[in-house]
């Protein structure tokens, strides 16, 4: 993948009217790049970009679960800008509940957006990138795509799926000049933990008081998160500009520390289970 240096780059970004997506669009437009920005409401997106020069913006009202609509959005982007250099699959939302409290509809809705929506974008954009023998896919996961906490089971399950998908994708497309990166943010000062972006179960049980306490703590958290979304946006751009960074890139000191702890815990589990693991081979 060769990031363009002789012209503005063209970015296709999903989930752009709030959070990290909005910060990324603002940073890209400020730097003079061209941005196709998907959202469920272009009016909300344009309000969020008030005061920003939107000359190089293509706002696209798209339901990512609608495969045909996603394909049209990719086609519209190529028609407007001549190609796509970077895709950022960012759309998503949080969900806090015990596994037992999570309904079938909740699970399907989460996976439709986080996994099927991402897959729709990839199916639509990869032929264009392969033809150009260039491109970069950046899939926004979470540190909760690498490790899990109680109450985050559904969100973690979807992000784990995104990580597995991206790891396979990276190996598949490397020979076509395309790069793939997993971004794992920690807590950033966005509206992710507000009612706009955090879903809760319709019914709960009194069997999990710890999770209820955690929900209250998270709802009170906005404004105290350590991560700066503008710096996160700049970091994502740097990932694309560099082009050859690690497969997984944590964002935030909290994310980096948690990832290190996960590696240590996993190494300890592997060591503890080694004897039983090798005992299951055929005897030589």
Automatic annotation (TrEMBL):
CDD domains: 17beta-HSD-like_SDR_c (cd05374)
Keyword set, alphabetical order: Oxidoreductase
Pfam families according to UniProt: adh_short
The organism's place on the tree of life at top rank: Bacteria
GO molecular function: oxidoreductase activity
Alphabetized SMART domains for the sequence: PKS_KR
Protein name: NADP-dependent 3-hydroxy acid dehydrogenase YdfG
Biological source species: Labedella gwakjiensis
